[in-house]
Structures are given as structure tokens and as C-alpha cells.
Amino acid sequence: MALSKCSGMACKQLRQQSLLSLLAPRARFISAATNETRGVTALAPLHQKFKLKKVLMNTYTSNEAEGHFCFPSACKSSKLQSNGYSNEEMQTASALKKFFGLPEAVTVACTSVRVPTLSGLSESVTIETELPICAGEAEEMLRNVPGVQGIRQSALFGKHGLEFFVSNDASTTSAEHAVQMPASSLHGPVAWGMHKFGGASLADTELFRTCGDILIGESTRNKTATPTAAVVSAMKGMTDRLVGVVEAATKAGGEAEAKKLLAEVVHSHIETARELLKGHPDLVEAVAANISSDSEDISALLRSVAVLKVVPNSTMEFVAGMGEIWSAQLLQGYLKTKGVPTAWLNARDVLVVESNSSGLGAKGAALDMRVEPNYVESANRLETWWQQQDAALRGDSPPIVVVTGFVASTMEGVPTTLKRSGSDYSATIFARLLKASQVTMWKNVDGVYSADPGAVSEAATVNEMSYDEAIELAYFGGQVLHPTAMEPSMADNTPVYVRNVFNPTFEGTKISRTPMTELNTSKSAVKCITSIPNIAMVNVNAGSWASVSKVTRKVMGAMDDAGVKVVLATQACASHSISVAVDEAQGERAVSAIKEAFQLELARGNIQGVVQESGYSIIAAVGDDLKDSVGTLGKITGSLARTGVSISAMAPGSSGRTTAVVVERSKMKSAMLAIHEEFSGTAAAKRSMDEDIATSTDDLRRIVEDSAQTTNSTGTEQIIPGFQIPASAELRM
What we know:
By secondary structure, this protein is an alpha/beta fold. It is built from 22 helices and 26 strands. Helix content is 39%, strand content 21%.
């Protein structure tokens, strides 16, 4: 059903103006009927690109939301039309048609109902479009429209339709003020943009400048004033250095050494401040004073540690988190030199968490040591902090808030952390608290790769992947993200982008619930190949002592009690045996724990032994479509067989997204290369070419043998005029 085209200036505005400025001139016109709801805001860019054909909008308002039309059964003063709709509903439908210039033939239906249990106003929108529309593309277009969620392809209209839900505040927002960024409102008309910079991105003064400039650019990207927040890690290697300071104090006569190491760390940060904030002595002095004050607190703790010869977990977490606190002040200082309204937020004052364990844990401990945010208390504290920073965050440009990663506090105010490698988690937690439209993790690579570029030279950036794929990838050794960090984003369906701080114009990898590439039926079942290099296999040969389930329960219980992470497990039912793959550094602890659990059975000879074998690696193929793709397992094993790699153990994941194999560590790189080539098409193309060559050679031989041959005077066999093959020659291709 064709739509009438807009003419003249209106059409020019649709092409050239931003979404917010597009709505502003017409705000007064639609205010009486629609109150400039976010549903209308979301429809504008969709109509501009895909042309609306049908619009079905259901509006749900609370009893407190004044000024909005209501469903007739709940609003007795509203008179019904002959078609059963209220006057307000018909007026809204008419206003929408006029606003978008839709002809009479286009159907627009609006329904409203008051719901006592809801606060504010929410809308459920279903549209049909003239042009095909993709849910993933629409999600990208609407990522800065607050409240839009649940975007999906319409079951009613298929590829020409969408369904989505929009949550609005109780008070209406005028489109005329949508481009302004009042600091008095934490959740304004434009959603926050969240960014995270790791230690490698903050290694030196120049990189601090790079990160600051990226934030300034992102805050005005696409000519939209976007309030921006950035979670920062400590400078590269700084957390390890601070841990070393505390550990030094536990040794005999170690207090002096610890204070010497602390002085070096403090000096490094102050020198960075002097270079980064050159020309702004007041900023340098303020940062240096804060760092010096913090170092005095640390020195007092070092004295206690030196006396006790033991480090309380709270002390270690307090000291180790100082690197993030100092990084945040350095980056905020640089933003101040650029005239940006900015403030730094100490997450210890806002983020309240509950943890099932204490201490920092080893690197990557955020994967296994559960830390649960108290979102209600944290949101209240964030609102209080925001109001306190009102003056600092007002200005002509959008505000930028720098947040300390990694650190938090308990409900009692005790300093704690999100455990080592937990700053990604900080970013997604604060993204949820700020109701951000997206999270961008800035790394030193162009996103998530299809394999380790160090092992596979042809590895390429994966454009899009699902949350589940990212979690599986991280579990099996992927260093880009951590599984725990996905949880807050998954809860709100907030897309996560992985981009390169050294190549900021590159879009990188988008991680979301439903990647656009799911519509590509020709894509490979395997999206990524990852690995864990140092693995030990612990084998328990239980003989006929007990059932597999009993042996497994006892082995897994021993691993849990000993704090050993089991990466992979395989069973042999006939021999009642089980093999578990663990980190090689934990191999001996795993064996000791299992032997202790089976102490009685070993003494009686009921089980044949517990053996550790080192020198292995795990390679995992990851992809959402693995479970639905026929022959995937055969391709993996076939590619390894052709390369001469033996499989020691194999475990298809129960999720259907992963197949993991255990191979000798010396064969890990060649195994990764073989699997990557198999699923990237390189190996298949090579085999196809080899088969074509073999077929061509056989055909040519047959022609030679079957053709009438004549021997000429030069001693060669002439088959085709001008084409001669020596009689004694071998045919080679």
C-alpha cells in the first residue's frame, strides 16, 4: 500500500534533521493527543527509512499519570465512537497520521488503558512497513531512544513488521527540550551511553588523552547530545604493583620495602598527572593531594600488616582498588582541561554488593566468585550522588561521568571489590543503574575475533554475536569479556559493543540477544574458535566399585570442596571411570582432593587409581547454530585427523553452543588452524580445488588412452593438432 510522498521543506527535514530536531517543530501540534510519548519518538526514524503502513499502539497508564487519554471501560467520561474507540483514542490515531503525513488508506489504531499497578506510561507498538525491516537494524537505530526494549520481528507481518515495548516516565517530555541535557535529571530524554576502558587502554599519558577524546566524541556522536559515563580500570600493571606493596609488608622487615614500593607507585601517578594536565597547575595540585592523602592511609595499614604478618581481605581489597580511584581522577582531570562538564564517581560510595567469598581472588576470579549488586540501594545512592554533583555537570555540552571500576562496598560500608578481572562487570552494572542504551568495551583489538590471531593468521573480527555465544567464549578462555559481565546487559537487553581504542572508527563487535546475522542462513555454524592452553587431565578409574553417577558425585564434590574449577568432564560407563580437565596449576590439588575423598576405596582396592596427566590444551568451537547443524562434529574431528592431531577427550556442551576437544598442547595451534580453516571455508575450498584437479587429470588421461593416436616423425603422440604430449611424460597438475 503506497504512501503519499512529503514535499518541499518537510521532505528535506526528514532527510537532514536529527530525530530530536525533527520532532521539535511539531511538538505543539501533537501534544494534545500524544503528549510526545517515546513511542512516537521511536516511530519517526522507522517511518523515514522503511515507510509505515500500519501502526497499532496500545498505551498503558497509571492512575497517577495525569493528562493521558484512557481506555473507555476505565474512563467513564470518555464517549465511544461507533467503532468502539474513545474520542481520545481516535484523536491520537488522527494526530499520528497527520504527523507522519500518512494517507487515509494507511491504518493507525491506538488503544489506551489505565493500570493501577503501573507507574507512568508505557506503550506496546506493532507496525507494518512497506520496505523489509530487520529487528537488529531497528535496535541499532533506536538505541538512543530511552525506554525502547523487546524489539522483535512481528509474527503478524513477518519481515515487513516489528513489535516493541516502550517505557515512559510518569511526566511527559517535551520534544522541544529533547536536545538539552539538564543535570538535574539523572534519566533525561536521551539515554546514557556507557563506556569501559581497561588498564591496557590507560597505560600512559597519551592513552589517557586518547580515551578522553573518544568520550568527548562519543558524547556528541551522530549530532546527538548523549550523557556519557566511563568505567575505568587501574593503569596497566598497577593492581599487581599495589598487591605487591601489601605482600611485601608481611615479610620480615618488610614495612620499609613496602613503603618504598608504594612511593614508586604514587610517584608514577603524580608524574602522569603533571604531564597529562600540563598548563593546569590547580588540577595537578588537586589530583596530587588526593593521591598523597590516600597513600598515607595505605601506609597506616602497612604498619598493621607488618606487625600482624597477615593481610585481612578487607585490607587487600582496599589497597588494590586504589589504582582505579586514581585513574578516574586522572581522566576526569583531562576532561576538565577540555571544558567538559564532568565529575568522577567513587563506586565505593554508590555500588553496594553482596559476595559469597572474600579476597581478590586470582585473575579471572570474577568468573567463579559470585558478587551480587544491591540494585535498589545502589540506585538510591546514585541519585543522591547525582544531585550533589548538579553544578559540576551543568554546561553547554553533555556531561561525562568517570566511574571507578572493580571497587564497591558492602551494606555495612566495608570496602570490597568485584574480584580480579571484574571491571567489565562494573560497566554493565552501572549501565543498568543509569538505564544506558548501550555499553562499549574499549580494548586494544578490533572486537571479538573468530580465533586467536596469534595462532590463526586468517582470524577476522566477528561483526555480531549473541550474549550466550559471548558467555561460552569467555568460559573457554576468551580474554575479551567475562561471563558475569553479560548478566546485567542480558536482563535489560542492552547491546554490548567491543571496539578498539587504537582504531575508534571501526565498529567492532556487537553482542546482543538477537544478532542481525541470525537472518543469514548461509553463515557457518561455528562463529569462534577459542582455547585454554594449560590443562591437566585427572583420571579416576573406578572399575566396578560403584555406578557412574555415584563416582561422578563424589569426584565433583571433592573438586568443589577443594575450590578446583572443572572445565570439562568425560565419562566411560563400562569402566565406571571419569576424567576431568582442570587448570594445570591446580592438577596436584585436584588429585589430592580426589584421593582424600576416595581414601577408603583406595585402601580396599575398590578403585584402581587417580592419575594426573599434564601437557594438554582445550580447544572449543562456539556458535549458536551448532546444535542444529548436521555434520559439525564430523567436520571438527575430520579436520584434526587430516592435520595429524589426536583427540584425547571430547565434550559437546549441553547448551548445544559449544564442542570442546582436549589435545596435546604441542598441537594446539595447528589444531586451531585446522578447525578455523574448516569452518571459514578455506579448507573446503582447497579440498574442492584438489578434487577438481584430480578429476581433470583423470579425464585427460582417459582422453589420451581412448583417442586414436598417430605417431609422427619426432617420436611424440599427436592427439589434437597443436597439442602434443611426450609419450614418456607423466601427467601432472
